[in-house]
Amino acid sequence: MTNIKNFAALPLGSPMQRLIAIAHKPEKRIVGLISGTSADGVDAALVRVRGHAGHELAPQERLQLEAFATFPYPHELREQLLAASLPGAGTVDLICRLNIAVGECFAQAAVKIIEQAGAKPDDVDLIGSHGQTIHHLPYAEPLAGIPTSGTLQIGEPSLIAKRTGIITIADFRAADMALGGQGAPLVPFLDYMVFRSTELTRGVLNIGGISNLTVLKKNGALADVVAFDNGPGNMVMDALAQQFFNKAFDEGGELASRGKVSPDLLNELLQHPYFAKPIPKSTGREEFGAAYCAALIQRATQLQLTPHDMLVTATALTAETIARDARFLEKRFGKIDELIISGGGMHNRTLMAMLQKRFAPAKVTTTTDYGLPGDAKEAILFAVLANETVCGYAGNVPSVTGAKAATVLGKICL
Which CATH architecture has domain 7-184+376-413? Predict the structure, then answer.
């Protein structure tokens, strides 16, 4: 627990005094904020968080979700974000302004979710903000002879703190990367907190723009957790739905259900070098964004596939990469007894049917069935990580990210 001997000597009502007081509270109300790789809007959750990593509390005692909503970005801002995420396309002046524009959207989302819960900003202790990922480069390459890896999440946290009047913690990935980690995925910390079991080996799968799988060994410790990004989740499917059907995504997997999987295209897609990389590994729009989708469409056109065929083949790619990774991990953990899914992909019935077939006889369910709404999971994560940070506890999982050590994450903006 945070401890400063001259606590009483701090100016009465000062931000530092308030921060220390918050750290000692047994229960905190925290807003978690994130926009994922799809960049469609800000997910905001107001969460009551009890205890911290040093407390042995049952999962149902730790977290209480008070409110959750997604606040869409203005269309023009989303287009600018997607453009800025492309290598060579994001100019320094554009990213500088986007940092502020996204920060304003995140601040507004925080205020609105507090209002929806019937609370006031003064009732909230902290904001934990992931921000919007613009670029993620987890593999080190030399720059001026210096090995460099890096990640960039925008949405200025100092602006969020000033607009809301709430202490804001952000930039959670950088500390892990400073210790040689990939800074991702971060969600396994929450997976372990909520879904570990003494009786079952569980896979916890989040299907956002990118899919990531966490494996929780039966009766395992946090150090036993393995997780990594499998590859594209909804990202490629969404791009095809937008390109050919003028829809933001394939709602319910209905469009894909009209197509036929192309074994030739699927096998070619599975040859992408990312899938053969050893763990730890993480990925994003850099590898599976616009350029990847353009190449997929070009090859699918050569094979004379219909748009529905392309879409169902992209859906099968997501399912197959997840299933392959699970089979790879079985050598270490044994069979997955239960697969628990969250994220937008859990609403895609075509994808869910593919996963149920590939993971049979394991039970396939969603985090919502366990009282943790699947769409809210990542926003809840950043409320939890903000709590760990202010209490002085590590929030990364080195066995997942490859970091040399566990470390406190994030930067605190008073």
Answer: 2-Layer Sandwich (3.30)
